[in-house]
Design brief:
Blueprint lengths: L2 H5 L4 E2 H4 L1 E6 L13 H20 L3 E7 L11 E12 L3 E12 L5 E13 L12 E2 L3 H30 L2 H4 L12 H8 L1
Parallel strand pairs: 1-7
Antiparallel strand pairs: 2-4, 3-6, 4-5, 5-6
């Protein structure tokens, strides 16, 4: 056993729960455009996030939020999709699972990175209450970088949420309605009358 791991008996290294899910994209996964439906990919990401988080936590986990689901490139029917998940960060009861998705053309061997996403999961006990998760043992510079990036992403999300909620609470429709003049929208006559009244 790694001596560092022995010094932290309750901590689990990133490698302990690293999980890869690979699935062939079949015709029934296609959307109306003939490419793989984004919902299929989200479902697969949720599965691999659960497997990775549950392995680290040693208990059932639920998805509470998803960050950064940007589809960089489409996934085609017939491609082999691999979703690589690792625990990037742990709080007291929560875990952030980073997922990298790649698609491989099995005929040519060409591999493309289709998206990266971050799932925040919460561990639950048998009474369905949040439960404490083991600390994360960081073994590599990438482990440390990902932990710090996840921490920063969490802080920025809280700051953004507070800022947006404060701005929304302060924003009065009548005072800001002129901002719509340069946007790609129109108001119905009924709405215009309502705002004048």
């Amino acid at each position: 056993m790694n001596s560092t791991f022995a010094n932290h008996p309750d901590a689990r290294p990133v490698s302990y729960s690293r999980t890869t899910l690979t699935e062939l994209m079949i015709p029934s996964y296609a959307n109306f455009g003939g490419r793989v439906h984004g919902g299929i990919l989200l479902s697969l990401m949720d599965k691999v996030a659960y497997a990775c988080a549950a392995k680290h936590a040693g208990t059932y986990c639920v998805t509470v939020s998803v960050d950064g689901v940007d589809f960089r490139q489409p996934v085609e029917v017939g491609e082999l999709v691999s979703l690589m998940a690792s625990v990037n960060y742990v709080g007291r009861t929560s875990l952030v699972v980073g997922i990298k998705v790649v698609a491989e053309n099995v005929k040519t061997g060409f591999v493309k990175h289709t998206n990266t996403s971050y799932f925040t999961m919460v561990a639950k006990d048998d009474a369905d209450k949040p439960t404490t998760v083991p600390p994360l043992l960081l073994e590599t510079p990438d482990d440390a970088r990902r932990f710090l990036e996840s921490k920063k992403r969490k802080e920025l999300r809280v700051t953004y949420s507070e800022h947006f909620n404060n701005a929304r609470n302060r924003m009065l429709l009548n005072e800001n309605i002129s901002q719509l003049d340069q946007e790609r929208c129109q108001m119905t006559h009924a709405l215009q009358e309502q705002l004048r009244g």
